[in-house]
Amino acid sequence: MAAPVIIVGSHVWVEDPHLAWIDGEVTRIDGINVHVKTKKGKTVVTNVYFPKDTEAPSGGVDDMTKLSYLHEPGVLRNLETRYELNEIYTYTGNILIAVNPFQRLPHIYETDMMEQYKGIALGELSPHVFAIGDAAYRAMINEGKNNSILVSGESGAGKTETTKMLMRYLAFLGGRSGVEGRTVEQQVLESNPVLEAFGNAKTLRNNNSSRFGKFVEIQFDKNGRISGAAIRTYLLERSRVCQISDPERNYHCFYLLCAAPPEDIKKYKLENPHKFHYLNQSSCYKLDGVDDASEYLETRRAMDVVGISNEEQEAIFRVVAAILHLGNIDFGKGEEIDSSVIKDKDSRSHLNMAAELLMCNAQSLEDALIRRVMVTPEEIITRTLDPDNAIASRDTLAKTIYSHLFDWIVNKINTSIGQDPRSKSIIGVLDIYGFESFKCNSFEQFCINFTNEKLQQHFNQHVFKMEQEEYTKEEIAWSYIEFIDNQDVLELIEKKPGGIISLLDEACMFPKSTHETFSQKLFQTFKEHERFAKPKLSRTDFTISHYAGEVTYQSNHFIDKNKDYIVAEHQALFTASNCKFVAGLFHALHEDSSRSSKFSSIGSRFKQQLHSLMESLNGTEPHYIRCIKPNNVLKPGIFENFNVIHQLRCGGVLEAIRISCAGYPTRLAFYDFLDRFGLLAPEVLEGNYDDKVACQMILDKKSLTDYQIGKTKIFLRAGQMAELDARRAEVLGNAARVIQRQFRTCMARKNYRSIRNAAIVLQSFLRGEIARAVHKKLRIEAAALRVQKNFRRYVDRKSFVTTRSSTIVLQTGLRAMIARSEFRLRRQRKAAIVLQAHWRGRQAFSYYTRLQKAAIVTQCAWRCRLARRELRMLKMAARDTGALKDAKNKLEQRVEELSLRLHLEKRLRTDLEEAKVQEVAKLQEALHTMRLQLKETTAMVVKEQEAARVAIEEASSVNKEPVVVEDTEKIDSLSNEIDRLKGLLSSETHKADEAQHAYQSALVQNEELCKKLEEAGRKIDQLQDSVQRFQEKVFSLESENKVLRQQTLTISPTTRALALRPKTTIIQRTPEKDTFSNGETTQLQEPETEDRPQKSLNQKQQENQELLLKSISEDIGFSEGKPVAACLIYKCLIHWRSFEVERTSIFNRIIETIASAIEMQENSDVLCYWLSNSATLLMFLQRTLKAGATGSITTPRRRGMPSSLFGRVSQSFRGSPQSAGFPFMTGRAIGGGLDELRQVEAKYPALLFKQQLTAFLEKIYGMIRDKMKKEISPLLASCIQVPRTPRSGLVKGRSQNTQNNVVAPKPMIAHWQNIVTCLNGHLRTMRANYVPSLLISKVFGQIFSFINVQLFNSLLLRRECCSFSNGEYVKTGLAELEKWCHDATEEFVGSAWDELKHIRQAVGFLVIHQKPKKSLKEITTELCPVLSIQQLYRISTMYWDDKYGTHSVSTEVIATMRAEVSDVSKSAISNSFLLDDDSSIPFSLDDISKSMQNVEVAEVDPPPLIRQNSNFMFLLERSD
Q1: Is 153 annotated as a binding residue?
Q2: Is 206 noted as a catalytic residue in this protein?
Q3: Is 156 a catalytic residue?
Q4: Does the reported pTM lie above 0.70?
């Protein structure tokens, strides 16, 4: 790798003994050595240094391949920066690095976060474990390949939790929602707590360390659904069962069982954990924050889910308890040499308990522990073990039982979950131990590191393959990249024969082999191997140089731990156990051992398992997750550099970086390269060159070689980036000096101008003072002249005004006298005319009133007489049920006669009106004649007055004294005429008084008649109710008769008797006839004929309903803004009284019609049409219907059209125009406004119809809202991030800054304008269909809430969106939405603009300047009061200024936010920083009813199909 180009002033990284790497500034260069002044003030001289990127984002980068300098200190600093911001995930290409936060971060693992990452390409959102899972799942679905996810890291790095999150996400993608019972994904997820209970334990480095490796194969069918799974485990740490060190713990299951409920503890004969030898070797019995009792119950529940029955669970925990009792069996020396016996009673008691739990003989168990049987050709020898060997036998038995119990649990889980032989593909999740290097490394560490060597080789090949694919994709020339291959280490370990494992197996097969002989064999075999070494101070230790460093192994227990056999006495003991579960474990083992006669060791079997694992991984597309433990104290907020670097090396991350650095470590997109280094060649930017050509010209100008230009990126060798940065720093330094020079020049010029301006101001002041003195003198002289002139004018004007006032007073007195005389004459004349007019009008009105009252009294008397007669006839007819129908027919005939008489009365009344009109015309002619005479007299008087005025004026011209000229004759005649008129006036006044008395008496009589008429009206109502009840009885009797006739027809074939029934015809309401119909049929009797059959009532009603449904199924539009269909349905239902019946089908048929119209409907116009109709109809029902316990009981004054003909005629009498003068007889028509709608006590079908209609209204509303969301959602993806401007903008932006800042370019807001266009389209559609403004405002309110949620969540999940320029872009788009809200008016938008409060405040925070000066209180109370502390913390840590280079809020504010977020995380149930979309219904029926204006139902014209039918003539009625 070429040395980076460094100049004085460059910032570099140098090694530090405390921080691993520290940054500083180069102060001097001496050959290959540089002098660096670190940030601590210390000067370091070194030749090992790396350039530092001073322009790196303050919050780090989410993909370390984006680092300008890809080296160890850059990677370490980037991880540390992101860890401080709680950004625990970081990409390195396709590799995910996960740093354990050691605290709960539930908000990034909730279901809504899974929804965000579902189907999103890798790298589009912030790094996350869900993104890796989604990438594997999408690759499997799209390419049909098997995929695997390898999770690695040292103990405590978070591998187990990461694996659980991966499995949760895969179950979320491939799960089956709504499936009853145990699903495959549930069983896979619940297998984790079971395996953790039996395979995890507390270690020095981790409270929940997995002591085994695990590979989970999740199988998927062709639809991408989980169809099966298999779990493979590797190398369980068996020695932990018997031996633990302080402060570690044994496996969790032992402590869980000791914390079980009291009944279980009694059942398994357990005590406190500190009383068991296998547990009390350590002082740690409990874990912080873990309740073993609840974990025990949770484990039992998980075992139920994975398919382990209650009997099997009981057997499992009996075995676990037996192992604890086995550990408490101690041995003492026996009587014989090298023999042993049970030490004491306590040990004997535990022996008996263990035997009881294992259901075997206690003596047999004792013999199996302390005796061995040796078979020779001559005899069978039984020998006793000494106490030490007996303890070893006990421990061996415990380890054997536990390991096979663990294997049984794994096999049971696999059997329960089941594997799908027809699965299309799999995703494997590998959770395996990371590289280990301790002070004491035994056989377990040897196997673990062997595994990691295998995985590292696979990892290196994968990284090399990714590099090769990147170069091939960009179509650049590349050569082979060398990388360290660890094949020699693998051969050292696994070569057969001659490898360490082979030599270990060989030593195990010889009984006399020891660890010394085994070590000597290794030293002799590998003394020349580069990767093998012998420590100087040990005879049995050996050292292997792994890829992550040298590890020294202690071979003391290699042979013992490698042996995989079971003692024959142990096997015989448990095979004879009465417990089928225990016997089954050892029986299966016996079958396996009998099938294989070769020697089997742990190492060989592990090597075979590892070989099988690598074959599986090689057949899949791998995805890597490297887990990092930031510190060894397991606390949050601590980042230990040396510890992390060691793990990066062990995890192969630095090796992957080294492979990248061996090729082209720096890769920049053309746009980014020009944006950063375009200033090195300004003439290139000013030219109209393609981006690729421009980049080529810049590199050629700087004489760089050995770089590559791909299709979209530039690939630079190591060191070339530093060289370009050095030249860029030089250019920027020169530019800074030019700016400083120009600034100093500007300051000097500014100082000179200020001095000059001060002198000018002083001179101006002095000249002004002189000018003001001269001006004052001239002003005094002018004022004196002005005073003299005004005084002379005042004296002359006062004399003139006095003369003029005297003249005016004289003239005014004369003219007033003349006017008063003329006014008196006119007032007398006007009074006479008014008296005459009132007297004549009173006479005419009195005559008309008498005629009207006489006619009404006559009509009322006659109607009362007829009503009484009909009542008597009805009472007589009611005594005989058989004659009831005849009475009804006669009654209807009588009513017909009354109708004819009514016509006659109308004609008489018309004649009276005509006579009255003629009389009034005569009176008007007489009045007109008198007015003409009055005008002539008035004209004569005026002429005489004019002549008198002329004479007076002529006389005044001769003589100044006034002369009064009197014509005595005329005055006398006028006086006589006035006297005569006064006499007439007095006589007329006397007559008027008499007429007034007569009028008062007539009013009294009229009131009496009104009371009588009101009493008659009440009686008529009572009669109508009686008739209605009788008619209902007739209808019920007719129904019974019909049923009887049908039964008779089924018995007898003859039906001739039915032909003798009287025939009736249907009389409908027409403009020529004044009869009525209510949609059902009204029948009038006619002469009986046998030619015209009668239609049944139900059939006719069915036809009317069919016609109504056929009409509303079409789009019949609107009438003056009112939905015709809703008004039509409402009027028909009211007229047919459908709301008041117990059973009817019309409601269900209307609902079915609406459902068929909107089913699978994508046309917004149709949905809005039915939304308007449904809302209007619901408004009618809300104001009309009221729930009642009985039938449709309404007040007589407000009931609808009666069903009988007599009732309808009576109702028409009360509502006739002739009765307009009597309010108590005026009926209420259904055609009035909503204020006149009558209240109906609805039955159950009507109330159910209202509920169904409400449900359909909400459904249509939801369909319109979801359709709008579907249209807007694709546009929002382009609205959250500013589109990249073309390269020409880099130049034009410098010269046209002002204009671009004022008005955003049209292409930049095109996506926002598309949203506005979509909103306008839907608004026009809803307004064209007269959708209520409340519903429109609610729709747009929820749409704006959806926009707020989508934009805000995207902003929090994508760091590239949290930039200054992106904030300006979104703010410009929001301004477009605000303008649209203003144009659409508040009536239709409501509070929609307020729904964007989260994104508005977030964007406002992004674009404010001087963020570091803002305190947390100012941010939370003034800038962003709506945002939560988690959301503010997320935005503050992700913010980066790509325009001005400013920083986010201060570190103190960040620290305070982090502390508050931590507190909230501990206390809150859900502390997700993401918003949830609200899909509820935001209105109620009362809201709709209150918001809608009154609708005149009667003013709506029915469609032609209805208008042409005579049964619907009631729809043509109009309200007065």
Answers
A1: yes
A2: yes
A3: yes
A4: no
